[in-house]
Each structure stands twice: as structure tokens, then as C-alpha cells.
Amino acid sequence: MISLLLLTLVSSTKIVDYRFGYNFGQVFHDYSLSGNDAINGNSVSTTTYDTIPTDRGAYYSYTSGQMITLPPNSQQSNGLSLGSKFYICMWVLVQQGNYYLTYRENTGKTQYFYLYRQALDNLSKSFVKFSGYSSGERMGSVNGFLTNVWVFLVLSIDDLSGYVYINDVKEITFTYTSVYSETGTFSHYIGYYNYSPIGFFWNYLIYINESYTTSVFTISTYTPGNCLVNTCPSSCTPGIIWNENSYCISINSLSTTSGSGTSCSICTGGCNSDGTCFDCEYASSCDITTGTLMEINSDGTLNTYSPCNNGEYLDSNGNCQSCMSYCSTCDDNTSCILCLTSNAYINDSGQCTCPAGTFASDLTSISGCQSCDAECLTCSGSSTFCSTCTATEASAGISGKCICKDGTYENDLTISSGCIACDSKCLTCSGSSSFCLTCTATDATADIFGKCICKDGTYENDLTQELGCVACESWCKKCEDSADKCTSCTAIEAYPDDHGICQCSIGTYAYDLTTTNGCSPCLDQCKTCLNANSCTECADPYAEIGDDGLCFCQNGKYALNSNIDYGCYNCYEGCKTCLEPLLCLTCSDPNASPSPISGCDCNLGYYKSLSGSCNPCFESCESCIEGNKCLTCLSENTIPSEIQGCECISGYYDSSYNQLKNCKPCDISCIKCSNEINCLECKENYILDSNNKCVKICNTQQFEYLGICYDCPDLCLTCNKNSCLTCEDNSQIQGINCTCLWGYKGKTVCEKTYFTASIEINKNNDVNIKFTEEINEDLGYEDFNITSLDKCDLSYEFFKNDAICHFSIENCQDMAEGFTIKIEIIKENVRSVSGSFLDKYIFEGEVYGINSEVDISQGLKNIVNSTNIIMKTTLCATIASGLMGSPSCIWIFFNTIDILSFLPLGGVPYTERIDFFLESIGGLKILPNPFSMLFNINNYSEPYKQAKDYGFTTSYIIINGFSLLFNFLLLLGLIPLLYIAHKILPKIISEKCYRIIKDYKFNYFIRFWTQSYLSLGILSFVQIKSKYEWNFEGVFNVCLASILLIVVILSPLILLIISFIAYHNEISDTGFKVKRKYSCHFKEFRNNKGFLSTQFYTFYFLRRLLYIFTQITLIHSLGTQVILNLIFSALQLLYLIVFLPFKDKYAMVSAIISEACILEIMTLSLLFLNDLSTKKLEILETTIILSVFICANLHNIISICAFISKFKDIKSFILEILESIKKKKKITSKIECDNVTHTREIEISTSRTFVGNLELVKLD
């Protein structure tokens, strides 16, 4: 939405800026960034006196006490300080009434001012009272304050005067006797306790230290179409000034609609033009255009709330994606809305860019744009790496440093004229125009004083010219005035004389003066020479020149190493004779000997006295510098003493007690000792005890053993060599070591370990609190507190399973989508089985609406009716075919319907239409249920939530299973009918009836149990899992369900044992009896592929037992439930395809079609566990419904074909009866029972959808 209009004044004088037109909630943000946030009503924790948010601002409904409270309040403890000069302004649209618009008062109400509207005469009132002044109530002009139009109000106080303006017209004037002042603590309100306004407040501003100026906020003309709200009047006077343009606001006075007239009837507050309700969380501030939560930063700025973190944006799929690294906020991953760096700006490409005079140091930090150095006009990489320079005659080098161009020098690179032209002699200069760095003349260089000097071998002619230096003669290194007047010579050892002619120096002679080595050296013995081999003067004054022109030493002197080049020297002091300066041949002192180094040395045991003679050393000295000051000692383990002679070294003591010393070692822990057992001083980390022994000192968490310190085990504070004595915090002694307490971990320090939990809610409003570890606590119903943030009373079921606590939310009147619940674990210090501590105890989440009506289309109802008609047709056809053949097609089809109809019980989030369809095909109710009248159905017999959602009204199994009981009793009544037929009908029929009666009790009960197995198992589990009352009705039903459940669980095992006996005793009498009694489980199968081919019913029972288990117990693990059902169905289908167990081809095809249909629907069920679009859900609905419909039609066709194929057998049977009556003769028949049975017996198929049928046995 557009920013508000009132931003033209200097921000430093504005202390309050509330923009009710697009900011609402429990907190109103102060956009002046002064931190003076207001609160809605009188507290952020209550809504009793709150204004109503609309797109035209805060709405006051004339409710007593309705107000907005400025600081001090529960959001900001410091109140407003207004001073002696300020003004308050606001845009309002009000309706008729008497009320305060704003009120400010001190604690004792001795100082206050207010602005009031009087309904009579439509005028304004105001009152100002402060220390030493009371204005009395002043009134404005009649009809000066109109209703149902936007009005701009100003209350201005200016030191000694005050004014009230309405639409920039001065209505009230005050003149004070003293300067306005305030003392004490003040409260400040928009509205007031008992006289709250009725109407809209668009904004509210306070400026201090400034007088009000008209025509800043209002304008007499208005540009049509400039609306601050969606719909505006065609004209408004005055108009609102913003951004040098005029605007209007909608004058719609209904708070229950938006400014454009959109109804907000479903909202507790107002709404915007698209009907989005304004709803803000507790103690929050929200944006009116988006309805999103905004957060107030520590610096007073405002951030729009998003489910995404800073640096993320919400993509089109509702997922949070990362912005570019330097974005604070963004709409996508290619451009920024705000930059992380405070002074960066967004360029045309949406990228963060540093402004001129700064460089990007790190755009991912708040201070990422650093200022360039003053020398840089622009810079990059660092503040000193210039791209362009401030000085116009300077340029940035490759190092980024600004350098003045050639011909100029640096004066002040921070200004544009910072480079000044050099002197004409200078090619470049520095510091001043005459201090050259390089010179104009090519053969000139600048010296350390910046003066241009011609290079060696040239002389100065004109240094302002490129050829200003002229070449010297070859023997001159330097010259002046002319080429042959040398000032220095080319030859290193030559020098110019007074005339500029080069001469060789002393010790050399001229060889070639045009080269650097033109003066060659004389011999070292020569001071001067004529050539390399002839001296003219010797270097040593005690040497003479011989006839060969070489020098030699005079008598009494010697040449060092016999080489005169080194000079002539006297012999060394103390030498009688010598050949070299330091090496004597003989010495003057008898106790001295020639030294191999220099002169003569005193012999060992003697030292040289001050007089130079050699005197004897102290007795224990091997050598000395004085008589008693030893250098080395005679005895081992001794060192020279600082006092006299020698002493034992550290760690040794003298055992001889004479001057020669006999030093023996002390104990290893001693530095000094008097003897081998008494220490005087100890080594480091040892201490002297009372027995003069040194004992080891150990550190903390160490112990001493045999003079050595050993570390204690981990977690021990103190220990000895055997065990820990004390332990670290949160640990305890266990055996000889310390271990962390339960729930703590660490090697050196024991710290708490934590586990956490999260909340999940599915579409069935099954709430799971999932713990990351299995909890050790026995959490129960009473350990949780479930409340609704929408203040709705909830009822729910609860149970715990390992690391999951389940809650099934059952009802709440008119609970809508997005309804929020809060679950709090009341029990403290919840621990996991590993001892970890729970880190979170409060969870919140949104549930799905549970009272919405399901819109079941007439088309879907027609499909259900058609499917039921097909089922009845199939029933008739299969009964007819079953009279003379196998009725397998009947129970195969209805067992398929049984499995499908129980799918919604498992909790898979099918659509409402699929739930309706599957539940509707599940039963044909032909009789009323008498047990519903015998048993009292109340809340204590209410089924658990999923069963209740499925359609069970009670948990009592005797009521839910009435149709099964009726089938059982109905078919049980066939026994007396068969007995009567046996007695009165012809013999051929009589004998057949007898055989049927003989084994009826087995086949009847087996077939009934087979057909009712799934339904009875489901009903038993429902009874066990649901609530019941502890009375006869409840106990009876629970006991009955428990017995049936035990039989349900044991059935697969019992059938496996029976089939094993029958298979392995096929030709024995035992096998014959088993097959006859349980023929309904054998006669219809081929049994020709080994033992597994005879186990159809074992797999049948086992598969249904697992199906019952998944549908009842895995309602909170839907993925596992559906995958297991899918696997069981696939295995059943694979068994049918591999073994083809049925003899009857129609039964075989019927079984494969049924299982394929179930497998398909199980597979499709897996898709419902994902969040799918409405279109995809409609496709799944259609696929499932059509699949069941097609399956029913295929079964119908198969049943009709089976009936037609058995018609010939029916005809033969009737003819056989007629022939028997006609001939009246006795017919005997022998019952042949083998693996291919020759009897067809009554088989009863029972389910919720089938009341039973009778098959007469036909004898081959």
C-alpha cells in the first residue's frame, strides 16, 4: 500500500507517527522511529477496549472506554515529553455524537488538555489547564465540525498561545499568562474512558519544537482517481496532500465492510477489498494490505513478518528459498528488496550496489559499503584502492594508489587541483615544482635533493632540453665546463689534479686510465712503486729495499709468517726468542711454557700475577686466576667455589672433609644434602618434610605413588592409587571410577543431554506429539493440557505409543479450518529412556474443520445405488448357480466388498465422497436391529473417533453385529427343515438330506465363520478399543468381543493344522473324516501343486487378520498401514496367479478380478497420503468409484454365466427325482470321499452385505 502522506516535515521534530490506515493489531508502530509505540485499548493482553481495524484506519464504535493508549503503556514505559511548543494533528471521519477525540492528563488530573466534539450545533470544544493557567472550555463555530466527511484536526500549543484548526480553519484560540509547561507523569489517549468516539481515525501525529503551518497537510483541490483506499468519492474538500499530489479516502462509514463495500461479516474486525480479514496475533503489529505480521526492530523500524527467515523468500509452492547472499529481503532469487548492507541501494537490476564514494567490502554484512579514502573519487576492493581519483591530473595505478601524471607533482590528492605542474627541467617532480624525480634531459638524473644532475660521463649544457647533457672524454668519469676537464676519473684508483688531469693514487701505478682498473696496485710491501715488481718506498718504516727492488725487515725484527707484506714486528712479551708475532720459541719465566696461541703461559697449577710472574694455585685447583680462585678442579663432581678453592656440585656432598674433596651423590629428589639421607634443599615439585626427606607435590586431579604423580581417571576431582574419592558435578562414584549421572554426558565434564518433540496434525485431526527419543515417563491423559487459542471447548481421545503421544480431537462446535490448538505437557522434567531431558513442553498447531457438511452429489448417489443393484443381481445369479454348483462366486465378490468398505476405518485421508461411496456399498439392511432397543446407547458406549467417523454409533458388538447374528440364526433354522425333508420326502432326497444333516454342524459353522471372519474381527477390535461402562451391558459386550478376538487370532493357525492333517493322511480314514467334515475348505480346490496349493484359506485368514490389525492399530502410521495392505494384497494376487487353486473357472476368474481391484485401490490409497491439488483428488475419486463399479459389473456377468452353465445339472437333478418317485424303488448310493469330493454340500456365505444362501448337495 502507498506510504502515508504526512512525511513532509523534518523528521527530527516528529515524535509520533501512527498510520492506522495500514497498520493495526495490539501494537501500533511509531513510524517516526522514536520508539513511541501505542497499544490498542488499555493493554496488549486484553481486547476489551480495542478499536476495530479497517482499511480506513482504526474504527471507534462508540463503546465506553474504547481507546488507543500512547506511552507510557505496557509496550513503552517512558512517557512523551512535549515541551512548550508542539502540535497534534489527525485525519478523522466521525459520526454524530458527544465524545473526546484525544485527551492528555497528569496523574492527579491537575494538568490536562483535550479535544472534544459536541453533537449539538456540530462544533468542537477544547480545554487547556497547566500550572498557573486554566482556559476553561472553549468552543468552535457552529457546524465547524461536520460528520460523515474526512476532517483534518490540529491542536497546536506555541509557548504563550494555543489553537484548534479544523481543515486549516482556526476554530479556537488560547492566550496563556505563562509559557506552557508540564510537570509529573502524563497519560495520553486517542479517545477516552467514558466518551469514546464513533468513526474512523486514519492517522495521528505529534510534532515538537515547531509551530503549525497551514496548507502542509491539506489542499482545496483534488485529482479524481487518487484514492488512498480502493473507492473514493468524486470530490473531497479538503484533499490530502502526499507526494505533491492530492488524494481522497473512502467515506463508507460501515466498519463491517471495506472501503469499497466488500462485506467483512465473517471477520471479527475489518477486511480489505478482497475480503481478507485483519487478524493480528497477541502483542503484534500487522500490515493492513497483506494482513501479515510485522516485527518492530530494536531501532524502531518495522519488518513485515513472513514464515520465511531473513534472507529467504516464499516461492510459488509455498516453500522458503534462499535469497542472494547480500539480500536482507527479496521476492525471488534474482533481485533484492532490501540489502543487508545499511547504506547500499538497489540498482535497476535488483542488485545491491554501494553508492559513489564507497566500496563493497562485504555486502553480506550491515557495514558492507565502506567509505573510500579522500584521495579516491571511486574505489573498489578496499578504501585505498582507487578506481578514479579526486585530483583531476591524477590517475589510479595498478596498485589502486592515485599518482599525479608526469609533469605534475602531488600537493593534496583530496582536492581536484591536487596535482601542480613541475619545473621545465623536471619530467616528474614531488613536493615542489623544482624537486625533480626524473629529468627532462635523457642523460640527467635527480639527486636526493631533487636537483637534476647529468649522469657520469656527461656534463651539463641545457637541462631543459632532452639532449642537455654532453659526453666527457673517456678517462673522465665526470667533467665540467668541457669534455676534458675531469672532476672524477674513470679509473677507480685515479684522481684529478688541479688542472683536471687524472693521476693514480699512492700504492698504484698507471696502466690504462680509460678503464675502471686503469691503476694497478703495487706490492703490499711497497708504499710507492714503478711497476708491479719494483718498490720506490717500503710500506713498513722498519723495512729496507734490497737490490732486487723488494723490501726486508731490519735486524731484531721479524716478518709475520716470513712475509714482509705483513710488516715487521717485535717478539711477544715474555718470549726470549720467536719466529712469529705470538709464537715464542723460549720463555723468560721458568714456570711458563710457550703458548701455542700467544706468547708464554703459566704451567698447570700456576697463575700469572700482576707482576707477570707465575705463582702456585690453591691446593684443590687444577687451574686458577688467583691463588684461591679456581678455574678448574682436580676432583670429580666439583666446581670452583665462589669463596675459595672447589666445592661439590648440586646434588652431591663432601664425604672427605678436606681440601681435595670427595663428592658423592645425594638422593635423587635433593638439590643439596648434608649426607646421603639428609636433604637440605629439594628439587622443583618436591617439598622437605620433618625427616629431611623430599616428597613429591602433585597437581589437582593427580595422586602421588612411589614419588611419581599420576593423573586421576576422567571425572575424578580427587583420588588415590586405588579409586576415585570425589567426583565432578553431575557425576557419581561407580565402582572405582566416576560416571555421569543418568541424562548427562561428557568425558571431563558432565553436561545435560536433550531431546525434542514436534507436533503433527493430519486431515482427520489426529494430533501426534512425536518425540525424537522414546520417553521414559508414563505420560497419561492428566499430564497434558489442551486448550484452544480460539476459546473453544475441546474433547479428545489420548493414547501413547513408544515415542508418540496421540490425540484425536473429537468435537468443537463450529470448528473452522485453521482452528488453532495448544498442547502443553504439564509434567515437569520429562526424560527419555536414555535419560535425556525434554527441551520443549508447549506445542501449537492448526486443525481441520470437523463440522463441515459433505456435499455428496446426486451422481455419486446414483453410482452407489447402481452398485447396490448390481450386487443384488449378482447375489440372485450366484444363488441360482450355487443350487447345483459351487457358490464360490458369491462369497468371493462379497468378501471383496467387505474389504473395500472397511478402508475408511483405517484413517487414510480419502475425500468425503470416497468415504461416502465405500461406506455406502458396505451393507444391505433388511431388518431393524432389536438390540438397539435392548441395550442403552450412551456416551460410555461411544466408539473411538475413527470408528465414529466411519459410521458406528456405538461400540457394542452385539448391536453392530446384529446382521451377522441374524444370518447365523436363520441358517441354523435349516437343520429342522432338513430333518423333516429326510422323514417325509422320497428316499433319494431323504438320503441326501441325511448326509447333509450328518456333517452340517461342521460345514455350516466353518462357512459362517469364514464369511464373517473379517466383520467379526473388525467389530471385536472396535469394542475392545472403545470406551464402555462398567455395568452388565458393557462387561457383556467386552467379554464377547474378547472371546471372538481370540478365535479370530487363532483361526489361521487352526486351519493350517487341519489342512496339514488332511494333506498328509489323504487316503487314511482320518484324512477322509477331516475332508468330509471340513469339505467346504477342500472340495472346491484343485490341490494339485503340493502342500501350498491347499493353503488358500490359510492365506485367506492370515491376510484378513493382518488387514484387521493395520486398519485398527496403525491409524497413526498411515504410510505403514497402506504399504502393508498393498503388500498383503499383492501376495494374495500372486498366490492366485501362481497356483490357480479353484476348480471352477468362474470362481477362479472372479477371485483374480476381485484381488486385482483391491490391489489397484490399495495402490491409489497411497497417493492420498500426499498433499494433492483438487483436480488430482477428483481424478482419484473417479478412478476408485469406476473401478469398484466395473468390478461389480464383471462379477454380475460371471455369476450369470455360471448360472447358465449349471442349468443342465438342475434339469438332470429334477428328472432323477421324478424317476425315483415313479419307479418307487430303493436307490442306494455310496458316498465317495477323496481329494476330488463328489458331494456338494450347503455352504453359507455370511457378511454384512449377504444374509446367506443354501446349497443343496447333488450326488454324482
UniProtKB/TrEMBL annotation:
Domain EGF-like intervals: 329-370, 375-420, 428-470, 521-554, 665-695, 718-751
Lineage top rank: taxon: Eukaryota
PANTHER family: PROPROTEIN CONVERTASE SUBTILISIN_KEXIN TYPE 5-LIKE
Chain segments annotated as transmembrane: 956-981, 1002-1022, 1034-1063, 1096-1116, 1122-1142, 1149-1169, 1184-1204
UniProt keyword list: Membrane, Transmembrane, Transmembrane helix
Protein name per Swiss-Prot or TrEMBL: EGF-like domain-containing protein
Lineage, top ranks: Eukaryota, Sar, Alveolata, Ciliophora, Postciliodesmatophora
Alphabetized InterPro entries for the sequence: EGF, Furin_repeat, Growth_fac_rcpt_cys_sf
